[in-house]
């Protein structure tokens, strides 16, 4: 990840324009109104200072009457200013809410855009995303706030500089000059802060990871059984301490810089006051002049310090906002995808000399895999742990492109087709299938969102997976929340946790809901199923044969023996291929594995 030094002025201006555009898009009317109020707020203190001067001069040289106009002016401007401040704060909050909605939409649209998984496996991507999420919450409001505030303080600054310069050009020049070192120091400090943030982000992500782990229901059993809570808590605190140490260093640097700048500002004030007082004592000016000049001096120093602080904060926000734009930037236009092959009811799937590794730094997982699954046939893929079976599934789903070779769907290279178009024609149960903390009905409906609320279709899919009766027995049937950690307002605490096998059946129901899918992928669908469920699933798969092409992965070889063909994946290649009978006759790896498993059941004589 690069740091902000490399952005350059043009880059900063582009980022500023992007942040302002985002702010204006999110809440155009509120943003304009806030701008008007901000500028008006900049004129107010100058107007009050002038009214004060007129009031004091009238009192000093007056005719004994009450100078009503200056008093009314001060009261009117002060009241208007106070109201404008409150209105500005409300508008700022409202704009921040709308910007948050907009940035969440843009960020999560961008994050879901890549069709594959490679990006989600990159720590650098997650670090940048973390910075982008931080930026999305703060940077647009901070940047536009800084621009408006600078606009406001510039109006005030010009007013007070003119006032002060009219009384003493020397003092005005001195004060203006003293802001140069302050500005340079604060800009450097801002850059230092943003570099620190980039540096501590990986540690902060880990800290959040440990915090979530300590609350994760899936981890809770192991954490308690193995006594890991203290270990994870210590690691969480170590990460937090590391991040805090870096922040502390930055804060100490800021303390030193701010201290020096305060001494400089104090010295300038003393010198300026000495010049002004000496002049009035020498008869050059009235008491009113002195009062307005002293007020202008204090205000000018204050507003200049404000401008400097805002500029530094804006620089810091720009550095952060660049991560947001990097994540949300539209990808370069891809060549138009080829038309998806016409729906045939069941496709021919072919792997043609497919090589694959997860990255150049990783070992080869597939080293020239070739096989064909004829239309409507089922292929069972078997092999040792880590042989690459699930990797074949991930390639077939288009989650990664093959490093070399081609995967064909009815003769069309799937790499040339819009992945979403093909995925709409597949259904799958993955090895690590999801347990969503929603109702049972919604858990099934996620397989095809057009079925949300369609009780008939959801029940049919549940029946297909043999989970309908178990769901009917839940406190609220299909509507029962499958969670013990979330409750909707008004819900009683009747959420249910399913068993591992029941979750797996629910994943099968989700897959079954896509009843028009032409390709069915089942990666270890029955590892948690009881023998009846497994038998039933394989009976149904056999019934489906001819209507769909199936890729089936299982370590239970008895469950795959009826597949049209069985392929043994070993050493990154298809080592054996044929029907169960053929492979048993060949007496190779498959036959060994099958006999070993079957032997396990036959150790004890069956009564
Ligand atoms: N996202 C990934 N990044 C890097 N390596 C990976 C990734 N996913 C899997 N691997 C590696 O690829 C190899 C094959 O994994 P895969 O999950 O395909 O095996 P499998 O045959 O399905 O195993 P099992 O029978 O245990 O489910 C393993 O060595 C694994 O470490």
Strand content: 5-15%
By DSSP (H or I, 4+ residues per run), the number of helices equals 18
What would the CATH topology of the largest domain be? ABC transporter transmembrane region fold
The averaged pLDDT comes out at 86
How many E-type strands? 10
Quickly give the CATH architecture of the largest domain. Up-down Bundle
User: Topology as H/E string?
Assistant: HHHHHHHHEEEHEEHEHHHHEHEHEEHH
Described by the principal axes of the CA atoms, the overall outline is elongated
Which ligands accompany this protein?
A: adenosine-5'-triphosphate
End-to-end gap:
67 Å
Task: State the share of residues found in helices, binned by percent.
Answer: 55-70%
Could you give me the name of the CATH homologous superfamily of the largest domain?
ABC transporter type 1, transmembrane domain
What is the topology, as strand order, of the major beta sheet?
6-7-8-3-9-10
> What radius of gyration results from the CA coordinates?
35 Å
Q: Which ranges are low-confidence, i.e. pLDDT below 50, for 5 or more consecutive residues? A: none
- In total, the number of domains comes to 3
- Overall structural class, as computed from helix and strand content, comes to alpha/beta
Largest sheet: 6 strands, mixed
Query: What is the CATH C-level name of the largest domain?
Result: Mainly Alpha
Itemize the secondary structure elements and their pairings.
Layout: H1 8-26, H2 28-61, H3 68-112, H4 123-167, H5 169-215, H6 217-225, H7 229-281, H8 287-328, E1 349-356, E2 366-373, E3 378-382, H9 389-396, E4 404-409, E5 412-413, H10 419-423, E6 426-429, H11 440-445, H12 455-464, H13 468-472, H14 500-513, E7 519-523, H15 531-544, E8 549-553, H16 557-560, E9 565-570, E10 573-578, H17 580-586, H18 589-601
Parallel strand pairs: 3-8, 3-9, 6-7, 7-8
Antiparallel strand pairs: 1-2, 1-4, 4-5, 9-10
Helix pairs in contact: 1-2, 1-3, 1-4, 1-8, 2-3, 2-4, 2-8, 3-4, 4-5, 4-8, 5-7, 5-8, 7-8, 12-14, 17-18
The structure holds adenosine-5'-triphosphate (ATP).
